[in-house]
Specification:
13 helices, alpha/beta, 3 domains, binds nicotinamide-adenine-dinucleotide
Length: 429
């Protein structure tokens, strides 16, 4: 962590899972970040967070629109609403002069993504997208190896996103993204992956895309005949990997207040809240009855100019949660990593193998999700705002925009079942 140049003040828009996560940085490092404003429609959450962060009444709002009516009162805004509610607040706060930390995805469609980037550039504010995997020490190490030419020219990248049975059922069945109108499974789950691939491919542009995918498992036809409507009364619950008791209640009883237990009650989970949620809400309903429009498996092939290829798979129902498997094959060497504590480099010229491990974090932080990537993101963002210097941000906004637009093209190739030529103008505003 760098020297602290000054205290940064922030307005947080959307105190849901991600908003609360990033705000915890202010509790961990009160000399670096202070939350001075909150916009959150759920009154009990707003009140709770107002007390936790000691925010003045005049800067607590039930919608971002009211906060945007005021002259700028914080250095930056942290926007953590759902993607359908990203474009309007981003543009409004950019016009007020705020630096912006914007949750991925930039927006729910290509046009809105471009508009956000266009307005932020015009207003000359910093816009940082929360593609948190770019901030992981492991992915930074891979970037360093690739950029230093250690593996030579990239021949092929293979990437698997293991979404996780818990994550898939919580996010895409019981939670925010069961319907495509809030973003497709590929956009929500895999814009991180396409973003990393974009980073490693550097200046090379993708020229062609194919993608296939389907939703095989979680639907009414696959519901076990004897299963019940709610997990708490289901006679086969013990055998079900998606049991609400196993996903929410059992971890809570073991003292785990993290994802996804923390997402089924508005405030800090307690036994009454968790029990009520799994007895009376969709968080306790049979996932086979609920179903989803999102895909549980998808494969993507990308052809890049110069001939390099990439294959990427997204699998919903897996044992690892938000796991990654990465292999990069170059003309001089190979890189392998699961982004979970090591990066292996094989040097084909010397026939040697070396394993790199990141140093343990030297500071204590609550931002442990995604292997600590959330911490590294906030550390970098707060520092950039304090110094008014975005050179430590690992993604240029052009590169973030490009990776999002490519993600939309991949979705299109899958929906239209076609080989899609990618325009060299992709990402040009
Ligand atoms: N970076 C990552 O790895 C990662 C992980 C999960 C989610 N996300 C992204 O983060 C974003 C938020 O997801 P989440 O899981 O925190 O969702 P969430 O539903 O927990 O939070 C959204 C919050 O926005 C609030 N909100 C709605 N309308 C509002 C308005 N008009 N003004 C102010 N607040 C408003 C809601 O009340 C809610 O508290 C999404 O874009 C999602 O894709 C990113």
């Amino acid at each position: 962590m760098s020297d602290v140049p000054r205290l940064v003040t922030a307005l947080v828009v959307g105190m849901g899972w991600r908003g609360k996560t990033y705000s915890n940085f202010a509790l961990d490092f009160p000399d670096r970040l202070k939350i001075v404003g909150i916009a959150e429609p759920r009154k009990e959450v707003l009140d709770h967070c107002q007390t936790a962060y000691n925010v003045a009444d005049k800067y607590c709002f039930q919608s971002w629109e009211d906060a945007a009516k005021l002259e700028k009162f914080a250095d930056c805004v942290i926007i953590c609403t759902l993607e359908s509610e990203h474009m309007a607040p981003s543009c409004a706060f950019a016009k007020r002069g705020y630096d912006i930390l914007l949750e991925k995805a930039i927006a729910e469609n290509a046009e809105n993504c471009k508009e956000v980037v266009r307005v932020c550039k015009e207003e000359k504010v910093q816009l940082v997208i929360c593609t948190v995997l770019r901030y992981l020490p492991e992915s930074r190490r891979i970037t360093e190896l690739v950029n230093n030419g250690v593996v030579g020219d990239i021949l092929n990248i293979q990437m698997i996103h293991h979404q996780g049975n818990v994550m898939y059922s919580h996010c895409y069945i019981r939670g925010n993204w069961s319907h495509v109108k809030t973003g497709t499974s590929f956009l929500i789950g895999c814009c991180h992956d396409i973003d990393l691939i974009t980073q490693w491919m550097g200046d090379r542009r993708c020229i062609s895309v194919t993608s296939f995918g389907s939703n095989i498992h979680l639907n009414k036809q696959n519901k076990p005949p004897e299963a019940g409507k709610m997990c708490v009364d289901c006679p086969v619950e013990e055998k079900c990997q998606f049991s609400a008791k196993k996903i929410y209640l059992d971890p809570f009883k073991k003292g785990d207040m993290g994802f996804p237990v923390n997402l089924i009650t508005p405030l800090v989970p307690d036994i009454e809240g968790v029990t009520k949620a799994i007895n009376t809400t969709k968080f306790g309903e049979c996932v086979y009855d609920l179903g989803t429009e999102q895909l549980d498996n998808q494969v993507v092939n990308l052809m890049y100019e110069g001939g390099s290829t990439v294959s990427m798979s997204h699998v919903g129902i897996t044992s690892r949660q938000a796991g990654r498997t990465i292999k990069i094959f170059g003309t001089k060497g190979e890189i392998e990593s699961n982004l979970d504590g090591s990066v292996t480099h094989y040097d084909l010229e010397t026939n040697t193998k070396s394993v790199w491990n990141p140093e343990p974090l030297k500071v204590k932080s609550q931002l442990t999700q995604f292997g600590g990537a959330d911490f590294h993101l906030m550390d970098t963002f707060v520092d950039s705002v304090a110094r008014r210097d975005s050179s430590r941000i690992p993604a240029t906004i052009e590169s973030s925009l490009y990776s999002h637009l490519l993600t939309f093209e991949i979705d299109r190739a899958q929906r239209e079942n076609t080989i899609l030529a990618i325009s060299p103008e992709l990402g040009v505003l």
